[in-house]
Amino acid sequence: VIACVQAPYRSTLVLRNDSGALARMTEWILGVCQAAALGTKSAFALQLCLEEAVANIIEHGEGAARASEIVVAVVREGDRVILTVEDNGAPFDPTKMAAPLLPRTIEEATAGGLGIHLMRRFASDVEYRREGGRNQLWLTFPSD
Amino acid sequence: MDMQVEDLDSGVTNITLRGRLDTVAAGDIDLKFSTVVGAKRAIVVDMSGVDFLASLGIRVLVMGAKAVRNKGGKVVLLSPDANVHSVLKIAGIDQLIPIVFDRATALSIVQLGAASP
Description:
The structure holds two protein chains of two kinds.
Chain A: E1 9-16, H1 21-35, H2 40-59, E2 69-77, E3 80-87, H3 115-122, E4 125-131, E5 134-142
Antiparallel strand pairs in A: 1-2, 2-3, 3-5, 4-5
Chain B: E1 2-7, E2 13-21, H1 23-38, E3 42-53, H2 55-70, E4 74-78, H3 82-90, E5 99-100, H4 103-115
Helix pairs in contact in B: 1-2
């Protein structure tokens, strides 16, 4: 009997919070999606949530509150994919943010506020922990 | 991210976007996109070649459409792929900017929108 068990896939990237961080992250996640053999839909959801989470960390925090390091990791285990995003900035729990009021007309539209809304909708689960002086965001996706 | 602008004989401006409209690309095209839409009243944004869209990319599209609307013009998004369309819907953009999947409909919406007071 030959058991067909897919080995878990794991990849980690440590980012310095500088102007090239998002470009390095994009190059990494495109490689991860390919190496983990993710389907189009889950690869897109994973990339979107990663982009929003990291852009949010880079955009927020000044001085000592600013994260100097962001560690992102993707694990694929069977039929689910887990993304973790960890940073050493000031405590910030995006899961506590109120859902945005989406504008009803183009005149009402304002810039921003969508990133966390998109993360909540594209991940099947979003959890936050503060451990060892670091923000940890755990996002789960079904894999296709 | 590649952005091509073409003025059609009908008075409509066609903007073709290709590639990832992510945070970095949004920063790269923001000025060019807002400059083009700031000078036009009837705009079709061909999204069929866009394979990724993040919130700052949405911001570029929405702020552009808002500037055009303020001048009495109209923007339409044409043929986003399934994933990009789902981002636009979840962000509620389909309630703000028409999203259509055939060029003839896109042209008629922007021509009508730009002609009305």
